[in-house]
Structure formats: structure tokens, C-alpha cells
Amino acid sequence: MRNLSAGPEQGAGEPRAKKPAAEERGRIVLSEGAPRPLFFTGKRPKRDRHSRRKVAFFHFRNYEPAFKYFTERVLDADFVPTPAPTRATLKRGEEMSADYVCTPFKHIIGDYAAALDRGADVLVQVTGFCRLNYYGELQEMILRDAGYDNFQMLNFSYVPTGKLRDYVAYCKKVVNPNLSVPRGIGGMLGAYRMVEHIDAFRDQYLANAGFEAEKGSFTRVRRAFLSDMNAASTTAQVDEGYRRAADALAALAVEKPADPVRVGIVGEYYTAQDPVSCLNLEEKLMSMGVELSNAMSISAFNLHYNAAAAQASIAEYSSYDMGPTSTFNIAAAKRYAEAGYDGIIHIKSAGCTPEIDVMPVLQRLSRDYRVPVLFLTFDTQTSDAGLDTRLEAFYDMIAMRKVR
Amino acid sequence: MKAYLGIDTGSISTKGVVIDEGRNIIARSYLWTEGDPAGAVRRVVDDLRGQIDLDEAQVMSIGTTGSARRLVGAMLEAQVVKNEITAHAVGTTFLHPDVRTILEIGGQDSKIICIENGIAVDYAMNTLCAAGTGSFLSSQAHRLGVEVEEFGEIALTSEKPANIAARCTVFAESDLVHKLQVGYEKKDVIAGLCRAVATNYLNNVGKGKKIESPIVFQGGVSKNVGVVRAFEEALGQRVIVDPDGHLMGCFGAALLAADAPKLRAEPFRFDIDHFDFRTREVVCGHCANHCEIVCVYRDAGLIDSWGNRCDRGAIKVG
Q: Do the Cβ atoms of A377 and B287 come within 8 Å?
């Protein structure tokens, strides 16, 4: 029979040739020639064969410091910061996505490609209650088809049980077999705190930055805060950094009228928060002199959300939950209306079905509470002339109403 | 006598009015933009100049609106640069103080403004899609070989309007071709188109809005009696079309200019023909955003620029 395997052919009867030494590599020989002890297998244990992973997230508002903290303190891996998204990133994402997919998908896959170019080898994707569940799997396939093959996906939608034990096992498998659970829990706490602080800071920022006395002073404090958060490596530093920034923000001079124009923002999880996705809508509004509040944040929707209470509060408008953030948004809009906000802006990405379901309810709310609601849809368009017109008109309208 | 100038530069047409101190329109002009807002504004300004006596009416303030408001504002050194929604609301409520709903269909966009006690309380504007606007009607008129100005009259002669799918311009167009090919009369198809525009508007922009009487319909498409009829039938209410309805945007801009806190030091002499206005697009190379920055030059001097997203792309004027 012909020997089909590669390598030099061996005739019958010849002494068996020694296999090449490839497998010998890595074997530790204690003393040359001596028999090897039985308990020593020659293979290093798995934890020592592990090379540190380089983990990247997608960009999401200003949560990057928390992602970094999570990577370094919980996963115990290196963090690769995703480059600041630009038009080129978005174009890349567009090319790799179907036209009709939700817009965040395009942003995220563009970020992934940029992160892989920077040398990341693990990409993190999260899970949710809508098409977000399929993002990770789909994006992994698309990226592999595009020629990126040296990466792994840490895709939390692969952990269907939702149990901590399974999450730990999955992270150990993909990122770091040495992951320490006690240390990880400490790190989780710090990351949790950091997310809360970043959101608390943002709320304070949105409420007052439109009235800053010295131009650019709020941005300065925000930058300092985020770089503090980026540098923090213990929970104490996280808390300390926030306290310092919150004090600095409170100390800034503002020229705020007694009864400012107040606008509340609700909408789809990613687009409503992320300034790149919504063409800097918050900054545009604040530059007109508006007190802003944005209902959506990780703290508000993931950490401190009481779904049953939110559902109960909107019982007269919606009798059941219509998808990921619908109940949350209706409840938030109702809260804004009751608090006497002058206007509400509802933001969604093109093709976001759950948020389309929210719109008729908000229209009813708008009639009942006599508060105007502006509906905005964002796709990957880059021109913001149309957005400027709508925002200016919305501002003029609610400001004129207020004067009367 | 003090006078005020308002210019509304839209995608299809450019409108201008001059009003006197009593807020009466003393000169009006309506021309096609033809893809050249700067040139159209010159023609409108020339047209207005021929209608007034410069020594008597001194234009002390200028307001601009419409999608080219910023460019035109820079050219004319306008005191007020306002978005078209506010300008329309201001203009219409001045002429019709009791109006409750403004329907507006322009060349490229359509909007609805709800008004209570003379103040805008809610508005909506079409997003992402230009279905059912003036440019759709004019491209279909071209296909049918009729002038868009005659559209309405022809539509009124129809007794059985054809049923045209209104949801999307692309579908409406293929539906229209199909109807013609199977032998529908042209007037029935045209009437069907007018009806499609009204239905499309009410289903998209007007969705969820309470449309209450008195209703004012304006914008270029309001000159089309066929669409007016279609709106009246769909709403079951009378729809008011002002003879100056197409000028409401620039009238509103002129009213806002009249209330501007700071007027011009010198009256406007309608003499922009002496200057050469040019715009130049610069692509900022500071980051991968590649912002397109528009620079407006008057003769050789830069007078304004916009389009940058951050300070790195800011071009200093002066």
C-alpha cells in the first residue's frame, strides 16, 4: 500500500525512522538520559501556555474607561482602545453590512475592523432583547469573510443560561484561563461604580453645560474626568476621580435663567446615547441654551431598572412590553411630561422596529400632556443640515411657547 | 420709510419679499433656483429692486430662510438667519391669526405645523424620503409631457381619478407607468397623482397629528388646485390657500428681520451685482472625518465658512 502521508518514504523491513523532533519541543528534561518521572507529563500546564489576550470593545458613548477597567481588572487581559470613530470607520462598517440592518450594527462592525487593524484578538459583543442577540455571531462571520481570521469573539449571547458560573467559564475559555473569580468580583464592583459615576457625571453635564459662562469649561472638566477614569485601577481611585470631577463641575460658573427651556431625550439604546450615531445632537441642543436630560444610560436601563414598576407606571398607555426598551422609553417620556419638560425628543436608528412601536404611544402622550415630541431617525447619513433645521425649529417652537 | 427684506431659498424655487413698516408686502418675487442659489438670489434681488423706489423704501434689515439660508445670509449680511419651519409659522400666523394647522409641501420636503393661539405647538417634517413633494410632481409632469403648472387644472377635469399607490415615490412611479400602459386617460392619472400626494402626506407627515380647522395649505404645491381638492376631500374640511401662500417663508423671514434687535447701519442698496460671490469646498485633512468645509468668498475675501465639526477645522474669517 502506498504511503500517502507526507515525509520520506519508508521501505518494508527497514528500522522505523524516528519521528521528527517537533513534539519534543517544549519538553523539559531534568537530567539528560535519566528516565522521566511518571507524574511529569512534559507539557506545561494550560495556565502557563496562555499568552495574554488583547481585548477590544466597540465605541459606545464615553464608556470606554469602564470597558478598559473591566478588561484589565476582571478579564485580566490587555485593553486595545478602539480608535475614535470617523467617517472612514463608518464607511467601512457600511460596506460590511447589509443596507437594511439597524444602524448600530454598522457602527460597531466598523469599530471592530478598526480595532482588529490595531492588533486586537478578542472582540466583545453583548446581548440584548432584540436583533442585538444576533449581532455578535453575524459580525464574526462577516469579519472572517472579510479576511480577519486571527481573532475570537467574546460573545455574551452564547451564554444562554445567564448564570455567573457559565459567564466565568466562557471568559476563561476565550480570554484567560487564569481568571480569578474573587479578583474578578472586586473588579466588577469597580466597573459597576465607574459606569454609575460616568452616568451621574453626564446627567450633571447635560443639565448645565448649555449655560456655561466660560466657553469650553465644561468640556475641559469632562475630558479631565474621563482621563482620570481611564487611569483608575482601584475602586478607591474611581470614587475619588468622580468626587473631584463632580466638585469641579459644580464649581463652574453658569448663566442659567430661572426657568430654562428643558428637553428630555428618550430612544433606542445605542443611538440615543452615542454622539457619533446621533450627529452630536446633545451638543447642538446645548449650544442653543437648553437644559437636557437623557433617560437612556447603562445605569438607568441595566443597573437600576425596575421593569415591573415602569410597566405599572404606564399601564394606561401600554398594557404589555413591546420589546427591549419600549416600556422604559414610554415610562421615561411620561416622567418628563409630568415633570413639565418643554419638549421630548425621541431618537431611533433606521429600521429599529421596537422603537417604531413606541411612536404612536408617545404621540398619544404628547396630546394628553400637551408636550411636543420630535421624532428623529438616524441612519449612516453624514450631513447634518436637515437635523439642524429640525432642532432649530423645535427649539424656536418650545421657546416661543414658553414665553407666552 | 423703513422696509425689510426676506429671502427664502429653497431647493426648487427662490422667493423674496419686501415689507414696509406696516408689515405689508410691497414687492414680491418668485423664481426657479435652478441649482444655483447664489445666482437665484441675485436675480430675486434684481427683480425686487425694480419694484420699489430705493429712495423711499430703505431696507434696514434682512432675513433669510430655506435650505440655503446660511449661504444667502452670508452673501447679504443678513440680520436674521432662520429655519424655514419657524419662518413659515411666523408668516402664516401673522396673516391668519386664527389658523390651527399649516400644511406645507415644498420642492423637497413637506411639513405640518400645529398651532394654538397663534403659537406653534407641534410640528413634523418628512425624514429621509422625498415622496409626495413638489420635485416628485414635476418629474412626473415631465414624464407625462405636461407642464407642472397645468397639472391642477387637468386634474380637476377628471371624474374618475386613477388609484395610484402613494406609499413610495418609486412604487408610485411604476404604478403610474402601468396605469398609462393599460390605457387610463392622462387626466385620470394626473388626478390620481394629486390624490396620491395628499394621501402620502397625511399618512406620513400628518400621522398622529390632530388636523384642525382652519387649515392653511402652502408651499409651491399649494398652487396645484388638484392637490388642494384632494386634501379637501381627504380631510372633509375647507383648505385655505393664500394667494401669497408660496411666499410665506420669506414673509416670515422679513417679519423676523423687522423684529431683529440690531438693524443695519446703512440701508441695503440691492447692489450685490458688483460683488463676485464664490463658494469653495475644502476637505479638512486633520482627521479621518474629512469634514467638507464650505468657504464663502466675496471677491477675494473670505466672509464665512461652515461645515467643520471641531475647532481643528475652523477657518478664521478676517
A: no
What type of residue is B98?
D
Same domain flag for A215 and A265? no
The answer to whether B183 and B203 have CB atoms below 8 angstroms apart is no
Cis peptide before B243 (omega within 30 of 0): no
Residue A342 structural domain: 258-404
Q: What is the pLDDT of residue A245?
A: 96
Domain count, chain A: 3
Task: Quote the number of domains for chain B.
Answer: 3
Pairing of strands B119-125, B110-116: antiparallel
Name the residue with cell 453583548: A126
3-state secondary structure B231-273: HHHHHCCCEECCCCHHHHHHHHHHHHHHCCCCCCCCCECCCHH
Query: With an 8 Å Cβ cutoff, is B121 touching chain A?
Result: yes
Domain assignment present for residue A359? The answer is yes
Question: Which domain covers residue B68, as residue numbers?
Answer: 2-88+250-274
* Residue B318 domain-assigned (yes or no): no
Grid cell at residue A320: 404589555
Closest CA to A123 of A144, A150, A152, A147: A152
The answer to whether residues B103 and B167 belong to one domain is: yes
Tell me, yes or no, whether B103 and B235 share the same domain: yes
Nearest CA in chain B to A88: B288
Identify which of A87, A389, A390 has the shortest CB distance to residue B289.
A87
Note whether A262 and A252 are same-domain residues: no
CATH number at residue B71: 3.30.420.40
Local confidence band at A323 (pLDDT 50, 70, 90 cut-offs): confident
Complete edge-to-edge strand list for the sheet that includes strand B58-65: B25-32, B13-20, B2-9, B58-65, B80-81
Mean pLDDT across chain A: 89
Contact A392 B86 (CB under 8 A): yes
Could you tell me if B251 and B94 are in contact, meaning their C-beta atoms sit under 8 angstroms apart?
yes
- pLDDT for residue B128: 56
| pLDDT at A25 > cutoff 80 | no
Which positions of chain B have pLDDT values less than 50? none
d(CA A311, CA A319): 8
pLDDT at A236 (0 to 100): 95
Q: Which residue has the higher pLDDT, A338 or A382?
A: A338
